[in-house]
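User: I'm preparing a small set of examples for a lab meeting where we compare how different chains pack in three dimensions. I only have the primary sequence for this one, and I'd like the structure in token form so I can line it up with the others. Please keep the answer compact; I'll paste it straight into my notes.
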Amino acid sequence: MKLEEVLALLEDSSPVMLATVNGNRPAMRTMTLKKLDGELYMLTEAGSPKVVQLLANPRCLVYRNLSDGDHSGFVSLDCLAEEASDPALRKRMYEAARYASSYWSSPEDPKLCILKLTPTGGRILKPGEEYTSAIE
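Assistant: Understood. Below is the structure token output for the 136-residue chain.
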């Protein structure tokens, strides 16, 4: 399945699980994935364990449950993460995330870290299907 088709299944703001590498172990946590202009982002605390882990190893996985009532499925995206520091993007992301002002004073707050996630592949199981498909 094409990446563009998979991204269309995600809302502009989706609850997801983010898996990073912590030494030689996986680490997972719930995050909010934001779509903006066809790109994927997350807002988080600068210097947090996930940011430290992604600076050491930018490979990560984003997992999202899919449901259509009686059937469920999932999207699992392999990604590379990098910190996005462009001031205009920081402002747009801060304004797009309704919760941002609860955590950070402004887009310029040094405690705010914007992570850009670039998908490199993954798997999808559409609700009602029996087998996963590769994401291209």
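A couple of notes for your slides: The helical segments are 3-8, 49-56, 87-96, 100-103. The beta strands are 13-22, 25-36, 39-45, 59-67, 72-84, 112-125, 133-134.

User: Perfect, thanks.
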